[in-house]
Design brief:
257 residues, alpha/beta
Length: 257
Amino acid sequence: MRTPIMAGNWKMNKTIVEALDFAKAVKGPLASVKGVEKVICSSFVALAPLADAFKGTDFKLGSQDIYWEEQGAFTGEVSPLMLKEVCQMAIIGHSERRQYFGETDETVNKKIKAALAHGLTPIVCVGESLEQNQAGETEQFVGKQVRAALDGITAGQMADIVIAYEPIWAIGTGLAATADDANRIIGQVVRAAISELYGGTVAGQTRILYGGSVNTKNVEELMQQPDVDGGLVGGASLKPDDYITLAKVAAGVKGSA
């Protein structure tokens, strides 16, 4: 069984005070909820305070990016050597990083390898634009992204990698892929590409999330899909009550609430 993940991507939201208020609000209600990995991906500045706030719980923290060098003259970057002291995971290749900050398949691949080298679990994002979707290019484009991201990655390392399929047209728009479409792309494109690279056993063990306007209304239907192993959630993860619901639903459907 693949343990589901409910990962909140806060993007550029929440001050440290607001982050700590969130942690206080969710720790108690989710303390007894098992069978789901509860992950919060905050801004860099909130990671250390949140690590203290969540100490002694089963919450995990993730960064929203990572750099591939350990140290050096790279003003503004944060290395895996620094991050591993405060978090366990790192979002890599989010479409906003690709769109606004020049992220490429090559830099995504370098960041994945750096994260793995320092014991951080990469959450690797792939997904197509609205134009690509409407042109029928989703399968080709997403499959290419997966193969490029995993270039040089061994079958053994795949146990420590999470993939997130996030159609760009669904991120923050209120539009979401149907549960059937999400399951189809995750199973027939993302998992199929992993199977081509590493075989069916590895593909069957790899956790693949759906992201893109996941909310409390559609989460149950999404979690009921056999190939969807959780969510990478933006806006809905900012509200404690919503995040609590998302985690409980994932645990209830795929784990043990």
